[in-house]
């Protein structure tokens, strides 16, 4: 048994003994929908148990709270957690985006102060990139950071801020210079959230759930050492953050393996469904569609493995991960759309209805899937990037 197989066996046994089971009330489907205190507390406890057992931040440096284990370990852990249908990890922004850029650009002091509580879910992170009216043009942001003695004063408005209501910290983009190109005047801050002048307003999504927020910064004073990297280096660090968010760079501390078992989950639902007097799964059209989804899912796994071999992607290192983000988010949307189609009239039922199949998980999944085709760059933006950088097509105007 090699090292990874031994790790898989150890983790499978741990999950059998420690899986928290069904809490008996509605859990969110991802960190994007966490809006109730009991959901938050339950998921935070789960991440803490995983961290204390060594399953979170396995590859991150041990001097900052990580496990210091070899590269590839966290991927195996994430795969087994997904296979064991374990709950997702709550601190999404911290584990997958903020933590990796702090390790790459942060000072020793910032790493020692911030990494361990991030991993253990003792401190929650959110992302302050998107702004009302800016669309996908990130460089047009209007939030401003101004020197105020030893501090920075922040004025601005951020939106679609996942976990903002619970966040202790925010990776915040703000303009610090109006001269020159708009990309050059942006700085990147590790901003405390529990301050006077920071107002979080929860938003309601079309599922009726919360999770997103808007954050108003009204002269909030953040410490001078909140700056990550150099003043004016924000655009470079933001692009690095997006490469982690889009899966174009490895480095997550955990929680990114949950999308690989979707076809199996749909098959479990269909085993209990009948249509026109027969089992839905015996319909050749349904079986053909499921086969196509399974082939696409298998191709995504194969592409993920190919992306980890430098010699196979050295000519266009971003192309394969960006393509995978585009394809996987659209695959998830198409799969949940197909599930709702097969549910027929029952797809109109919602949580709490005594006749709703699977407690409306697939209806929620379909509505929530639109967030996944927008987050980290819309599908249209990703197609533009792939066209320009991977295929060498002319730039859009």
**Cα distance, first to last residue?**
55 Å
Radius of gyration: 22 Å
Low-confidence residue ranges: none
Q: Label the overall shape.
A: globular
Helix/strand order? HHHHHEEEEEEEEHHEEHHHHH
What's the helix count? 12
Average pLDDT across residues?
A: 90
- State the total count of DSSP E strands: 10
- Given helix and strand content, the structural type is alpha+beta
| Beta fraction | 5-15%
Give the structure's gist in a few sentences.
This protein has helices spanning 3-18, 37-52, 73-83, 92-105, 108-119, 234-245, 262-270, 284-307, 310-313, 319-343, 361-372, 379-390; strands at residues 125-128, 144-148, 151-159, 169-175, 186-192, 198-202, 213-223, 227-228, 274-275, 278-279.
Characterise the protein shown here.
With 397 residues, the protein is α+β, with helices and mostly antiparallel strands. Helix content is 42%, strand content 14%. It has twelve helices and ten strands. The strands form three sheets. It has a four-stranded mixed beta sheet. It has a four-stranded antiparallel beta sheet with strand order 2-3-7-6, with no helix packed on it. Strands 9-10 form a two-stranded antiparallel ribbon.
């Amino acid at each position: 048994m090699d090292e990874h197989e031994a790790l898989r066996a150890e983790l499978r046994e741990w999950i059998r003994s420690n899986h928290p089971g069904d809490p008996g009330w509605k859990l969110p489907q991802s960190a994007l929908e966490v809006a109730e205190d009991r959901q938050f507390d339950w998921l935070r406890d789960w991440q803490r148990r995983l961290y204390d057992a060594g399953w979170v931040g396995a590859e991150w440096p041990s001097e900052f709270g990580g496990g210091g284990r070899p590269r590839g370990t966290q991927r195996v852990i994430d795969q087994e957690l997904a296979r064991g249908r374990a709950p997702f990890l709550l601190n999404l922004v911290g584990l997958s985006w903020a933590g990796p850029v702090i390790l790459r650009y942060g000072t020793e002091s910032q790493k020692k102060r911030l990494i361990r509580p991030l991993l253990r879910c003792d401190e929650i992170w959110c992302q302050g990139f998107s702004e009302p009216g800016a669309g996908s043009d990130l460089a047009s942001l209007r939030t401003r950071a101004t020197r105020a003695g030893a501090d920075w004063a922040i004025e601005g408005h951020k939106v679609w801020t996942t976990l903002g209501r619970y966040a202790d910290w925010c990776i915040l983009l703000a303009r610090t210079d109006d001269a020159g190109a708009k990309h050059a005047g942006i700085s990147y801050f590790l901003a405390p959230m529990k301050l006077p002048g920071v107002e979080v307003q929860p938003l309601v999504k079309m599922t009726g759930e919360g999770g997103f927020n808007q954050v108003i910064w009204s002269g909030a004073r953040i410490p001078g050492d909140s700056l990550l990297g150099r003043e004016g280096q924000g655009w470079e660090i933001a692009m690095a953050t997006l490469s982690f968010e889009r899966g174009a760079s490895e480095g997550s501390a955990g929680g990114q393996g949950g999308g690989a078992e979707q076809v199996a989950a749909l098959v479990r639902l269909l085993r209990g469904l009948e249509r026109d007097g027969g089992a839905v799964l015996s319909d050749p059209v349904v079986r053909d569609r499921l086969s196509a989804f399974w082939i696409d899912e298998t191709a995504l796994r194969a592409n993920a493995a190919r992306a980890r071999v430098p010699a196979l992607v050295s000519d266009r290192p971003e192309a394969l991960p960006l393509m995978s983000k585009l394809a996987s988010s659209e695959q998830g949307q198409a799969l949940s759309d197909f599930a709702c189609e097969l549910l027929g009239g029952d797809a109109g039922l919602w949580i709490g209805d005594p006749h709703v199949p699977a407690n409306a998980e697939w209806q929620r999944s379909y509505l929530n899937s639109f967030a996944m085709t927008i987050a980290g760059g819309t599908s249209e933006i990703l197609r533009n990037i792939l066209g320009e950088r991977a295929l060498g097509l002319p730039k859009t105007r």
